[in-house]
Amino acid sequence: MSSPTLDSEARESISIRLLMQAQFDEAKRWWIWANVSRLLVVIITIISLIRKEWLDWIWILPAGFTVTHSLLQWRADTLQGKADAITRKLELQDGFGWKISEQERADLILEVSDKVKKKAYGTEESPYFDSRQEVFARRAIENLKQSSWYTRHLAKKMAKYVFVLCASAVALALLSTFIVIVFTSPLQRWGPNIGRIVIIVLVFMVAYGYLRLGFQYRLLSSQAEKSSNRASQLLELETLTGIQAVRLLHEYQIARATAPMIPDWLWNRTKDELNRLWVQQVSR
Predict the structure, then answer these.
(1) Would you give the DSSP letter of residue 14?
(2) Is the CA virtual torsion 44, 45, 51, 57 positive or negative?
(3) CA gap 130, 277 in Å, rounded
(4) Of 22, 35, 189, 250, whose CA is between 20 and 30 Å from 127?
(5) What pLDDT is recorded for position 71?
(6) Contact status, residue 217 vs residue 156, Cβ threshold 8 Å
(7) Do residues 231 and 176 touch, judged by C-beta distance below 8 A?
(8) Of 95, 92, 97, 88, which is closest to residue 140 (Cα–Cα)?
(9) Average pLDDT, the chain
(10) Which of 191, 222, 208, 262 is nearest to 24 (CA)?
(11) Cα 229 to Cα 24, 44, 101, 205, 225, distances in angstroms
(12) What pLDDT digit, counting tens, does each position of 9-21 carry?
């Protein structure tokens, strides 16, 4: 049994903000594998139309990957929920000064995996938010404005990418059909299969939620924009109450928690431009 002193030092060496980031990273990894598994369902289904001699056994694979996708997605959603819970506590602590108690801290650490814990040891390189207001309602709203501004533009870009991907998949399927009809003489052989492939692609995008995913990102962007605009209005008031700040923060947190995650590659690709534009915006 370890001594209380060593236990205390171990707890203090874990950064809750790094814990949050590591938890989101783990959730995104499971989310990626969930998407890979459902892509495999479509690929294998299409292969089964072309290689009919495999039909005796290949049908097992789509069923297996469908179940795998459900389990992976459930795991990703669970981990995302844990990461969102940590995020909410940190926002309340940074904005309102509602400190995370030792019991809450211990609970957060115990609920994550050992891999996440290992990544959470260390110190933060820089403050997460740029606000220099004293802790309370005005600081919380400034933090919210910053967070929702970034979320708005990241979600908007992600929605555009998803819609382009869906449109490209439909265009490619229709183009394949056209090529077969115009340039392939034995249409009676390949025509029905191409038609089935087109239907599979369309059903895949709708049934597996890729088209809906684009609308979810667009909705997140719209809700984040409303939160950002409302935050700007509240900051113009001479008197800003804690109730107003908490209500708006909770509305934004609910919208963010029910939305899909923003991939790391999008943030890495756009962070320099977003940071530059944000600095220009707040320095005026």
Answers:
(1) B
(2) positive
(3) 13
(4) 250
(5) 94
(6) yes
(7) no
(8) 95
(9) 84
(10) 262
(11) 27, 47, 32, 33, 6
(12) 444 588 899 999 9
Q: What is the C-alpha to C-alpha distance for residues 106 and 124, in angstroms, rounded to an integer? A: 19
pLDDT at position 193, please?
63
Across the range 244-258, mean pLDDT stands at 94
pLDDT at 8: 46
Instruction: Calculate mean pLDDT across residues 56-68.
Output: 81
- Report the pLDDT value the prediction gives residue 179, as an integer from 0 to 100: 66
Q: What's CA 119's distance to the chain center, in Å?
A: 20
| Placement of tokens 């469908």 in the chain | 66
List for the chain the helix, strand, coil content (%; round to 5). 80, 0, 15
User: b/e per residue, 84-114, with b = 16+ CB within 10 A?
Assistant: bbbbbbbbbbbbbeeeeeeeebeebbeebee
Contact 156, 170 (CB under 8 A): no
Residues 6+ apart with CB under 8 A from 14: 109, 117, 120, 121
Where would I find the H helices in 97-209?
102-110, 114-120, 137-183, 187-207
